[in-house]
Design brief:
Chain A: It comes from Cloeon dipterum. The complex is a heterodimer of chains A (212) and B (10). Chain A has 212 residues and is mainly alpha-helical. Chain A is built from 9 helices and 2 strands; from the N terminus they run αααααααβααβ. Chain A has one domain. Chain A is globular, with a radius of gyration of 17 Å. Classes of the chains: A mainly alpha (212), B little secondary structure (10).
Chain lengths: 212, 10
């Protein structure tokens, strides 16, 4: 494992913790897209099925369990415990527009036509666009709480760091996975507009507010 | 010969 990969994983972990903590401490999931969280739950579930079938390392297994548990916990808090605070009027992105193409693409473009491999590929494609309901919600309300912005920043940076990891691995190990790389580029590009707003506004102490 | 698929990454 190289430094970019490690920092990417830490950033990913940090994002998940920031979100869970925000919901728990404020007893509210206002401003958070339940649909994006459902999609992430689906992403982790379909990608980490190999947790049962193959052992890679303790680090790998622990991280997978943590991501799965945190994702399910977030969904539970949003849809059960703090359901009353869930802002579903603003969470109107049609997720079938993301899930159906991700399934189709996974069936068409994959490394191996086998169930576990297709589910992995689906999870990679779906992850790249899973944040769209959340970004759509922010654009609809025109603003985001600072803590939500920190969450989005950490989540966006994670795949960006993976891109550096893949560049490094291509150079150092001659290893590359085009499916992950292309999806990772798409995923990171989707955050660019947000990164700009985060750096120019949130880091200067201002609330993230979109121009009217 | 393609590289074996690396599933170590998360």
């Amino acid at each position: 494992m190289n430094i970019f990969r490690l920092l990417g994983d830490i950033s990913h972990l940090l994002a998940i913790i920031i979100l869970l903590r925000k919901i728990w401490m404020s007893r509210s999931c206002a401003g958070i897209s339940g649909k994006s969280q459902l999609l992430f739950g689906l992403v982790y579930t379909t990608r980490y099925l190999d947790l049962i079938t193959s052992y890679i390392s303790l680090y790998n297994s622990v991280m997978k369990v943590v991501f799965l548990a945190a994702s399910y916990a977030t969904i539970y808090l949003m849809y059960v415990k703090f359901k009353a605070t869930y802002d579903h009027n603003h969470d109107t992105f049609r997720i079938e527009f993301l899930v159906v193409p991700a399934v189709a693409l996974a069936l068409l473009i994959n490394h191996d036509f086998q169930v576990v491999e297709i589910l992995w590929t689906f999870s990679i494609y779906l992850e790249s666009v899973a944040i769209l309901p959340q970004l759509f919600m922010v654009s609809k309300t025109g603003e985001a709480e600072s803590i939500t912005s920190h969450y989005l920043f950490a989540l966006g940076v994670y795949r960006g760091l993976y891109l550096l990891n893949w560049i490094y691995r291509f150079w150092a190990e001659d290893h590359y996975d085009l499916i992950a790389i292309v999806a990772g580029v798409v995923q990171t590009v989707l955050y660019c507009d947000f990164f700009y707003l985060y750096i120019t506004k949130v880091l200067r102490g201002k609330k993230l507010q979109l121009p009217a | 010969q393609p590289e074996p698929i690396d599933k170590d990454e998360l």
